[in-house]
Amino acid sequence: MSDNDGLRHRGPSKANDTVKPVNSNPAQRIQKDDDGPGISLLDILRILLTLVILSCALSYYLTPTSSLIWGYSAWFTNPKAVVQYFQGPVVLTLEELSQYNGTDFSRPIYLAINSTIFDVSASPQTYGPGGSYSVFAGRDATRAFVTGCFADDTTSDLRGAEEIYLPVEDVEDEGLSSGEKKVRAERERREARRRVRGEVEHWVQFYKGNAKYFEVGRVVQETKEDEGPPPVLCEVAQKGRPKRSKMNSGKNKKQAAPGKPVQ
């Protein structure tokens, strides 16, 4: 047998049997390379939980009240407020509201401002019997929040309360005509009434934003308090009024009400 016959009958090489075709599709190669564990939903939850814990820790050490939520006072963090929410708002007359003045320990302490009732039971030393602001308990004393006359103005009647911001006319000759003085007086009274509304809204927001207190309902008046002559401005408020002479000289242009912040 010749060498050529031996070469013709030799079987195919084993190396050729193990060679795999090369994948010439670049997109399939990239997809195969990208296949891996990735980020799971559990990993995302772990990251979010870590951020929340870090935020609470920073808030606790950086806020003056050691708050875990950066001083934010949500109503639902107060258990009593949550219970009241599910019970629904209370509707009381002024006579019924007077029963919630702190003398009956089985009842909460309520006060009202601009007909909105707030539960202030968290501060019995302030609003309860003998407290520094017990005059507000069981009443809608909106006027007193503006004038600062806690003993005299325990009413919601705001008629004439703007007088506290109007100047006392202590200048005889300003060189203005009667018409000019009338226009000025009307402008100043409109501004004074705007400031009264702003003062009332300030206190409403104070109680709404305080973590210790919460809104419970509304006052309904069986008789209108704004009937008859308006209340007279009390002596303390009268003394706190600005003087025209000082206003003309650049002083007391922004006279504040004499009332004190209620805690």
From TrEMBL:
<comment type="similarity">
    <text>Belongs to the cytochrome b5 family. MAPR subfamily.</text>
</comment>
<dbReference type="InterPro" id="IPR050577">
    <property type="entry name" value="MAPR/NEUFC/NENF-like"/>
</dbReference>
<feature type="region of interest" description="Disordered">
    <location>
        <begin position="222"/>
        <end position="263"/>
    </location>
</feature>
<protein>
    <submittedName>
        <fullName>Putative steroid-binding protein 3</fullName>
    </submittedName>
</protein>
<dbReference type="Pfam" id="PF00173">
    <property type="entry name" value="Cyt-b5"/>
</dbReference>
<dbReference type="GO" id="GO:0016020">
    <property type="term" value="C:membrane"/>
</dbReference>
<feature type="domain" description="Cytochrome b5 heme-binding">
    <location>
        <begin position="92"/>
        <end position="172"/>
    </location>
</feature>
<dbReference type="InterPro" id="IPR036400">
    <property type="entry name" value="Cyt_B5-like_heme/steroid_sf"/>
</dbReference>
<dbReference type="InterPro" id="IPR001199">
    <property type="entry name" value="Cyt_B5-like_heme/steroid-bd"/>
</dbReference>
<feature type="compositionally biased region" description="Basic residues">
    <location>
        <begin position="240"/>
        <end position="254"/>
    </location>
</feature>
<dbReference type="GO" id="GO:0012505">
    <property type="term" value="C:endomembrane system"/>
</dbReference>
<feature type="region of interest" description="Disordered">
    <location>
        <begin position="1"/>
        <end position="32"/>
    </location>
</feature>
